[in-house]
Fold these 4 entries.
Entry 1:
Amino acid sequence: MRLLTKASLRYLTHHRLQLLLSVLGVALGVAVVLSIDLAIQSAQTGFRISAETVSGRTTHVLVSDLGSVDERLLNTVRIDLDITASAPVVEGFATSSVLPGRALRILGIDPFSEGPFRPYVAGGSTGLDVSELMTTRTGVVLPASLAEEGGVSVGDSLPMVVEGEAWSVPLVAIIEPADELARAGLADVALMDVAGAQEVLRMVGRLSRIDLRISDDEAGSAELEAIAGALPDGVGIESVGTRSETMSGMIGAFDVNLTALSLLALIFGMFLIYNAVTFSVVQRREILGRLRALGVTRDEIVRLILTEALWIGIVGALLGTLVGIFLARGLVGMVTRTINDLYFSVSVQGIDLRPFLFAKACVLGVGATLLAALPPALEAAGANPRMAALRSVVEGRARVLVPRAALVGSILCAVGIGVLSIPTRNLVVSFTGLFFIITGLALITPAGTLVLVAAVRPLLGRVWGTLGLMAARGVGASLSRTAPAIAALVVAVSVTVGLGVMIQSFRGTLVQWLDGTLRADVYVSLPGPTASRAAGTMWPEVIEDFVGHPEVSGYSTYRGMDLVRDGEAFRLVALELDPRGEGAFDFLEGSSSDIMARFRAGEGVIASEPYVFRRGLERGDSVTLSTASGDRALRIIGVFYDYGSEQGTVMMSRSLYDRLFDDPGVTSLGLFLEEGADSERVVGDLLALVPPGRAVIARTNDTLRSASLEVFDRTFQVTAVLRLLAFVVAFVGVLSALAALQLERARELGLLRASGMTPGQLARLVVTQTGLIGLAAGVLAVPMGIALSIVMIFVVNKRSFGWTLNMEVGPEVLLQAVGLALVGAILAGVYPAWKMSRTSPALALRGE
Amino acid sequence: MNDRGPSIELIDVHKSYEEGERTHEVLTGTSVSIRAGERVAILGPSGSGKSTLLNLISGIDLPDSGTIRVGGTDLGALTERDRTLFRRDHIGFVFQFFNLLPTLTVLENLLLPLELTGSTNGRADDRARELLAAVELEARAGAFPDRLSGGEQQRIAIARALVHEPDLLLADEPTGNLDQDTGTRVVEALEALVAAQGTTMIVVTHSRELAGRMDRILELDHGRLREG
């Protein structure tokens, strides 16, 4: 081994704590990035496998914008167009009391048509006896894993609730596909005959879609052309890939935002590395100077430092991957739940340990380490061998650099603002702008700290005399070492403030919105597979009973459908509003009463802010919808604030809906009660009116409000975890940097002890100094955090989701930030103070 | 390097430093010529520029103006990297504060200059041990520097400075941090090794006694060198 390498290794092993913290920094950064990637990937894979298994070898599907197609279309395709590779499919969701917390995906198929499509149905390795499925009314086939989980076997009845209707369906077979992929894909599927599925999903005469297998040649193109020509209005032909992409594209912004947050943790990790490497360079400045004097070239010094960083990076990255897998196991549940709450049903069977993600995280980790180590490495190499030994020269240069760094920081902030001003929805551009601002702010912090410390110096002098003055001056006197630590702490705390204010603002806006939107006293819907999206249609007789309750004075009806048009998903809603519910909408522009009058008259539709934002539309533009009588362009008469759906919502009056669509269904009800009525009691009365075998969810205004906020809090659980992890990374960095700084002052502190300073006085000096740094960082972090939150709320969030949020800055977030910085910094001083108080001044004064 | 010709030439060398808002002129047109194999002491009060002069001769620093030739090589014409390589191959350094590398053992400290110049075979080890024997510290080969006394550390530093047989040895206050007896032993070790290798030596010192043992004394006064 080369002697330089040996010297460097020995240095690292002699400074084990510093080494450990550096490795920890990389490991935590890599772990957070990897775990988020794994969680998102696993959710995407779960969705893809499920979609692919359910689609089988289907190449194209016939679907309607309206959600279902007439089953007679199958005859047209098979008989008139002679396309035999076609299969009817009915899909929906159910829940089962024996499978709590699971959404069962009902897949209704015609076993005789399945040959070219789903091999697990068409016999073969699964050993499925299709005759049982066809001859048993509402018979169901479960995969072995589900049957085992539910404790049911062939011949048993499986209790199910489908759109509020209780069913007891006979389990006719259990399948266990031979290949693992199919097993994973079928993990949440309940297979039924198409007729049975139509019955339980109340889709008699309708199909969710018709699957086709079209060859990828000229004959296939001709077939596609023929099919397209024969399709009724509102029905389209889509390739399976496009459909799948549309669904997974729905979580695109969610994915980017989580990834950006995870990268933030890596950036904090980089600060930690930067701190550690800078410190190791500063600590070895004399040694490096000796090496330079002996004839070691600058390149060799850079290589030496970078090689150390490389090893730290490699070990940290490897450790990070292990921690990442562990973290991912927790995060995947949160991510999946959020996707289920907000986007679509997905069942994740396990962590998708894709090698690419490991490679990416490791490359990022090692790359970030090298990048963070580069400035100190260059600094080490650039140091003149003569000057290297002179501490005063180093500190002098650091002081000169402070205003320059502040200038560069201001320029970077300006560049960041410039980048953010680029009119684009590209999130990478937005996060790049944010990164510039964060880096710029980090560079400004040393100057800010000096100003703050200078401001409190007289006060410290008055309170603690010379000791106080020494503590204050010490911050500025060792700027070459304190500046990176302060910058890291300020950035970490300001990002925490930024995220905290953003979440607080989001929640505040949501609460305000819910207060305005939830006007009815009781809300009724059918139990569905997900928390936030009502599905199915209610029974007319139940609606009649409910609105006829003596204490119900009025009602609004809501019909909602999740649709896809031009590859973009959205929700279409038909509203019949009680006059008391009309004030629920808050419009971006225009008179609310005028818009609602036109809405009632069916003059057009109202669209949610995210809907118009995503499509670049505005009030006055048109929305084209597939209706029973073909495509219809409808004018947007108002754009309303809406935080219920990221994909966007289009609403029309029930009367207009009835004119355009042949669908009498109602998804949910809002009931207005007589003055003074007890909502809870009415809810009890209503539930008692529901006939046996049927179920509805009836909730009071307050309960629904709490449930909505619960979904919100769940959604932000991942963000909160990431915020915490990012802070832990930064906290560890600051703790190590400040503790190391004080430990490195052993000689100076030994001198003070030798001069008669008591251990107590010494402890006060050290802790005051680190506390001062923490206080400065906390105070600086507040305005910076608010600036970051402005960017996150008004740029990143707006571009990601299209929501306008009201900014809310609560004192608790700010106090928490200052408190955390202060506590972190004070803790950083405790160990060195304790250690110095136990060390003999003679030992501390002894040189090398 | 040239044999027995003028080993070092300084022609009208100027050097100054910025100190806050004022400029401190350290060397103000110094010229001197030192022959190969000559042992020269440079005397002068603190802050007179003695160490600066050594840094300039070693190529660690560059003059503001003037020419410095070492063994016929104009240091000003070399790149920073070439100056480093030149220093590595041709110059040995002894500092006041020993400046051994704390994370290398005594033997490894001696091997480092050899490794840097590319001699990493068994002969390097023999050579390093030979020098350790010459400074009577062979028994401490495996020890780390913090286990040695000041005098021992300085003798190791001398051995390290000469292990790669440099043409020029620069010593900056080699006894400045040692008591008189230890200092004398160190100087004797230095003289013995330099004499054995025929190395040109420049010693910066405050000590008249040490200076008196050299072939020639130069005094640095107001930025210029004059014969002492």
Entry 2:
Amino acid sequence: MNRSSLPGIVYSLPGIAWLSFFFLIPYIIIIIYSFLTPGIYGGVTLPFSLESYTRMLTSPGYWELLWQTVWISVMATVICLGLSLPVAYYIATSKRKNLLLTLVVIPFWTNFLVRIFAWMLVLGRTGLVNSFLLWTGLIEQPLQLMYRPATVIVVIVYMYLPYMILPLYSSIEKFDFTLLEAGMDLGANRNEAILKVLIPSIKGGIIAGVILVFIPALGSYAIPDLVGGTEGAMLGNLIAKQLTVARNWPSSSAISMIFLLISTLGLLVYLRMNAIQARVRRFRVREDYMKEQEQ
Amino acid sequence: MKRIFTSFLLFLTFLAIVGITSCGRKAVLNIYSWAEYVPQEVIEQFEEEFNCRIVYDTYDSNETMYTKLRAGGAGYDIVFPSGDYTSIMIREGMLKNIDRTKIPNLANLDPRVTAKINYDPEHEYSVPYMIGTTGIAVNTRYFSEYPRSWRILEMEEVRGKATLLDDMREVMGAALKTLGYSVNSLEKEQLNEAKELVLLWKDSVAKFDNELFAKGVVSGEFWVVHGYGENIFYEATEDEIEDIDFFIPEEGSTLWIDNMVILKDSKHSDLAHEFINFILRPDISAEISDYLLLPSPNSKAAELLTEEPIYELADLENCEMIEDIGEDLVLFNDIWNEIRFGL
């Protein structure tokens, strides 16, 4: 047998094994735990029970916290997208691409937590912003910039911005800019051309960026914990508290299932959209082919 | 190409052999404890005297430590749980019986400390490392007129500039003490009153915090923090210490005793016993107290201290130990979830 004709499955086995071991099996454990009874001192015991779910679904507080979590993540994602589009466009059309891309990636060289702490030096009561405003005389008392829900959004945006810029950059870079000129030749002004020609053709990059920012933002734990204040908590913090302080493993497993549900739903919608697009594309190709035949 | 590969393999093998033999020479003692809790000098001195290596891993709360061990975290020899978690770990069979004949220095323990130990009075599983309380620290650069009471949290001046620990038992304990109840109260009425009080405090604190209170109060980011004195003074320079007023509120506070315990699956039990005995040596114990600025639980260390601790053992009279409350923890959990997450 020729070596290169080994079926693809053989090559993908290591990957599949890795994923099933470190992704699928832990998730199955979480699913099972979420239906068990908490042990008094942590862990889980029999019997199977729906308690964790009924408690979660019937308590308005959970829904409010879920809403707050989703709202913070959506806001952060939208702001990231708004900030990243011009940046990615600029980098893709710049002559110093490599330098600019390096600058985008540089924050990754510093530890995640250190960068959160750095924000405290910027936004704190005795931080840069307040010291500057006090110095200019614009304010007399330091502003409360830290420990608010808005602070959580600001820091999440900062943390995940590169994850939005990079996929946008890579799709804008492949974009044929003469299409913009063509659009403008055909009567679109610059904004219309960007909106109707550029944006649709970099949709893949936008979706990738949104997924890469929204999903991790949803599961934020350290950011709301450190900069969130008394009203800035997210679901991730509740999961940790239920697991450790409350010693209620089934409850934290059940809340984790919300994340699994949201990400799975998002992925399904994405796949569905792709499938529809592919069908439309196939249909158009067939149409073109039939037209050619007619001619 | 092939030759490069072979020599690379040989090189790796060489590294592996060197690695194994040099590791094999020294025994390793794995400690799982609070950050900055055992001074580096003490660790180095032990390594030298007993020709071993100490691996010091840290946790930030009893709960984190316990969850990690319950979830299968293994390989640690000595852990430093507080009293309530010591009793849980004893009950759950996670600890090894301590061979008291191997720890002659147990006799050095101050009877005032051992008298407070109700979770393991005979030291069958645990030996106290440090004793202390949780209090309030004020940065007096910003404000100087205040009651030395938990009620300081209700002052208009501190709104948005104070923190409470993100610790259910500590915060509820503070509220219960303020109301004149026991920190281990299980009376629904009392717990509800305490909940209302914490909700009142929540309005004026910037955040519930276990990580930043020490740095925060020293830098002036926060004016009033609820926390552990040893952490706060650890962060401050000589000059900054002048501005920090740490006090035990007049209503009383919680009392904690952190213990050294040996885990059941410890593979270096002998060395672990040596370590505990070493910590109880008067000179070492004094060194630790000087480092943490905490009163020494070792009666023979008292005269060796060179620093004045933040508070003395005698100041702890009005402080009450947090005890394990078993399945009644759910009473506290429900209240805490309401306070923290609005559930």
Entry 3:
Amino acid sequence: MRALDHKLMRDLWRIRGQAAAIMLVVAVGVSLLVMMSGMLQSLRETRLQYYESYRLAEIFAPVTRAPMPIVERAAEIKGIAAAEGRIRGAALLDMPGQALPVRAAALSLPRSMTPRLNNLYLKNGRLLTPGHMDEVVVLDSFAKAHDLALGDHLVATMQGNRRAFQIVGFAAAPEFLFTTAPGEFVPDDARFAVLWMHEEALAAAFDVKGAVNEILVSLERGANPQDVLTKLDHLLDRYGGQGAYERKDSMSDRFITEEIAGLSATSVVVPPIFLGVAAFLLYIVITRLVQAEREQIGLIKAFGYTDFEVALHYFKMVVVIAVLGAAMGCALGLWGGRLMAGIYQTVYHFPFLVFRVEPSSLVTGVLTSVLVASAGGIFVLRGVFRLTPAVAMRPPAPIDFSRTGALNNRLRRWLDQPTRMVLRRILRNPGRIGGSVLGIAVGMGLSSAQMSLMSGFDDTLDLTFGVIDRSDVAVSFFEPMPAETVNAMAHLPGVLEVEPVRGVGAVLRNGRESYRGSVTGLVENARLNRAVNKDMSDITMPSQGIVLARALADTLDIGPGETLRVEVLDGRRPVIDVPVAEVAETLLGAPAFMRFDVLNGALGEWGRVSTVYLRVDASEMDALYAALKDMPTVAGVTQREDARAAMQKLMDTGAGAMRYVMAAIAGIITFGIVYNAARIAFGEQARDLASLRVMGFTRGETAYVLLGELAVVVLLAVPLGVGIGYYLSFLIAAGFSTDLYQIPTGFRPDAFGTAGVAVLLATVVSGALVRRDIDKVDLVATLKTRE
Amino acid sequence: MAPLFAMPAPRVGANGPNILAAPAWSASLWRRMAQNHTFKTEGLTKTYGEGEAAVHALRGVDLEIPRGEIVVLLGPSGSGKSTLLNILGGLDHATSGTAFFESENLTEMSDRALTRYRRDHVGFVFQFYNLMPSLTARENVELVTEIASDPLAVEEALGLVGLEERMDHFPAQMSGGEQQRVAIARAIAKNPTVLFCDEPTGALDSTTGRAVLHVLNDVNARLGATVLIVTHAAATARMAHRVIHFADGAIRDVVENEIRQSPDEIEW
């Protein structure tokens, strides 16, 4: 090893604390890059492969009842590659030891057991045996949630008929990556089941012999899905077509698309912040090193080393730190990626999910960090070139503070000398101070924005279940029920209060803009299921017209006074025109509200009810469930506590978990900057500090001169961080918000407080580490050396 | 030896002669005045390291330095003179023996007490000035006057070193000699009982060096501070009241100058 390389090793060892802090920042940046880009690629590929291998339909067309031959006719539509028909029905399952029935979707399998589209991935057991009408295959994730075993029996109620089925197989399917009960938007493995059974069995149960009620379609390459949708709707219209929709509009696919989008946005924004901070840190650390070693540099040059050789020496240091940090980051990223892949696989029920990182993304990670870090180093190297050997012979000139100027008299009275020292240093290095302030502020902003979002989610939960839905139980029906149902419900055991809701699936249309959603009819002065504005005030249901959520009104490009076309998808499928009465600032989803009687009036169905919300005496809950289970018209029963738990779970896994990680690692930035800034300030001021001690300043007074600068940096950074965090939280919220859920944002003192405390804590720890060094200073040795 | 009960030279503070102005015309002051020495050591040793690697910087130093004198410590590198200066200045701890500043035992003091001692009684001047680059000449002096109990006026301290005109300049705007004079002004501004100078002219040319010695001489004469100078330059010894020669960690001899030379007469 050459002498200069020995020096390199020893120098690195000497600044190991700082080097480690920088490596950590690089490592976090690179690990996020590796982890997220790998995860993104894995998710995209897995989804694509899964969809293709199991031939997931690209268009779904629900219909009331269409004769079998319609499938062949659909297949002839231009642009359609293959079509398949199936029967889909709703069922309620009695789960042993559980009073509350579980909702299920029952799907038909053709006699061949291999549908042309939407195939099953059999995980355990076997498919159905011809002729055995009592066999079912059950969705694997549901079976796991309930500890079901092959051979177990399930009792299902379909159209009011109870039947027992034997489980012969467990399967997963690409259309059920995420399972949600109809009408709910929170997935929950335990509360929604999918059953596959013989076509004949389902046809009998739902009285659709020789017919189907769902058409699945795959497209030819290059086909225009819009054209196909239109033609399909036209074809199915007379059979009660409920509006064909694309795969991307299905719940399951929407969830994973959103996850991918969120991950992609994060992977673009966050790693560069870490790498940028690392570059800045390298810049200030190496600058300090070159300053401190300028005599050595002069000497080395005097010996005959070229500028280039000397510059290379310092450049190597940058590269070593960057490469080591990046290597650590790659290892961390691979490890974290595997961990994350495990989480994703459980949440999304992929049959396979291999976290694979292309070697190229590792190379990219390392190269990026080296390049970015070098950018910081290059500036420093100019200083190395400028130094001449003669410098070594001259005594060090004091740093020139004259341009920071004299203080005016008023200031002079207020500031003691140590404070002036702090201020002048800050004024002399505005760039470095500014960089530190900005870096810490961005780190804190990132952290507080993430935490702000987390508490936003909690607020959403509280709002949904504390303000909007104050019922204990929600009961939904297969068909809209007549008004007497409300009365009947009131007489069920334990029911204290009943509130009806009418909801219809509909396509809302304004000119070319359309949205597939629903219209909800609420009674006046609703108490159990309310519509509220952002400020928690009730949305009053108008005596005519419809109230649209802001997001929905924006999507449809419509405002109050204009007329909205509502193409109802249920029942007789009327098309009605209603005026927009109001655009409401709702918090959740993209709802459209009408008054209960106004909606029913427009539909021509007086008093019809699709869901009732109940307040129930807790002691009679089981009796109520037993009664509900025996009502053939009941499609589903939701307990508020279950729904809340499911939503909490959703927020805590996947993207939710990622947010916790983000908040934690944002703190690393602060530590990296504060610790390095403290070390450098100490290095530059060691002599000054020793002089102060010799003059009789106490340790505390001396530490003030050193740490005062940091205190100012942090005090400037915290408010800036709050500002950045505030705007960042809006940005991220906008990125994550969809019409499935909108993330409430705003100033959240708790989030900013926590982030602020994290910054201060990191500062105190760094300060304490450096203060230990002050106490160890050999006063005499420091003062007798020339720097 | 100086007379046993010699009165110290009058000390001039910012508010006039401080003996009368001092709030504590007290027992402790009486005790201090009763001492005829500033420093007194007995069997002072200092050893760095242990065992075979041990370096004996001081091997039992017995010494008495009278008040108000200029004392020059001479000797080759490693003879122990700087070590003695550091112990007397409260910058280092002795290994064994005692060192008294007036009636207080420095060797028994805690770090906190030593800091207090430096703050109240000691001025230091180093070879490399050690000014705060971020403070002007005036502010460098104020650094000390702000924490001292009985300081000189800043203008007076800078006036003593002849830098009234350069008070608002930063160190980077001054020559080496000027910087050293600011360092001296800073050291004397607290009105120290004792002034320690470690190679004060080491980094200066002869003209500037002589000017600095002049200042030290003045400070001694006008403030009555005891001045200890460690130096290689034997010629400096001629301006001292007393010259202590060091060799191998011990005092070789002590010479009292019958006739002191003015710094102007000293050949460089």
Entry 4:
Amino acid sequence: MIAVIGLIVGIALGIFLQPAVPLWLEPYLPIAVVAALDAVFGAGRAILDGVFDDHVFVISFLSNVLIASLLVFLGDQLGVGAQISTGVVVVLAMRIFANSAAIRRHLFKA
Amino acid sequence: MAEDSPSGDAVSADPVIPDLAARRGHLRQALALRATRRQAIIGILFVLLGFAAMAATRAVGGSALLATARPDEVVRVLDDLTERQARLEIEQRALVVERDRLLSGSEEQRLAASRARVDALAILAGTVPATGPGISLTIADPNGAIDYSVILSTIQELRDAGAEAISMGPVRVVASSWFDDVPDGIGIVVSGRTLLPPYRILAIGDAATLATAMAIPGGVSDIVRAAGARISISPQAVVVVSALQPLVAPQYAQPAASPGAP
């Protein structure tokens, strides 16, 4: 419940405050958002599996965001930033699909 | 990474799946609102997630289009712009032609141009009074030491320095002006009129340039002083050259059609 409320509050803040993204953050923000989404889907699946642990969730959320951003940063420094962002997004999207498939099976048995 | 549970499509085959009721129980438990520190942290994380998602959406929607576009998209955008520029250039050329037609075709415009031309010629010919910045030059020559060549040099020097209208005493100095000495006595003959010292010369032009031209070493000032006369130069913000040269219709010369004139 707290998650839903938090999400709504965050979206509302984003819409009403219209934040200007600093230039140095611009390449990392979308990746970080996708990484966080991966953690959220993983958490949803863990809840249904009955193995959800909020400690694990917080750690995985933060480490996901951090590692994804670090990867992109490293890629930028190596000159392959665009490719690495694409790779990270592809991997994260695959994980999100896998997790959402598991959630779907749990909820709808299909 | 997200959870320590296995991921992938093989999950449904997991033999330890709890029954549906148990799963609903987990869900209900997870959705329950509990005021613990960890719940608060999770809430904050989700606030951040929503905020960041909105911020990222906004950033991508704006000017970041070119920064994130693929090369072929950028090429297409560039092509569009080039094509549009070509169209606009054609339109611009048509509009320029139209504007030129209107400008040259306008009676008022032609009248104004003619008036400006008449003014310039009248000042050149000395048929109208002229005013503007310039210098006032006085040569005091009580002994008659100054002859016409000095005055002529002075006039030439003033013209060299860009003087646009010059008068000497009551005589306007124009293209046809001439200078001579009075046969026996003091004075200068200018265009047939005898002037007695002190000679007062007014010149319209850039005051500083004219004054400098008069004062150059070995120039007019030095010559006049060497001859034993006195010269005083005063730059002025406004000089009025009111002496006029009567307009004489040329007796022999006729305007010839010049190829450059409209």
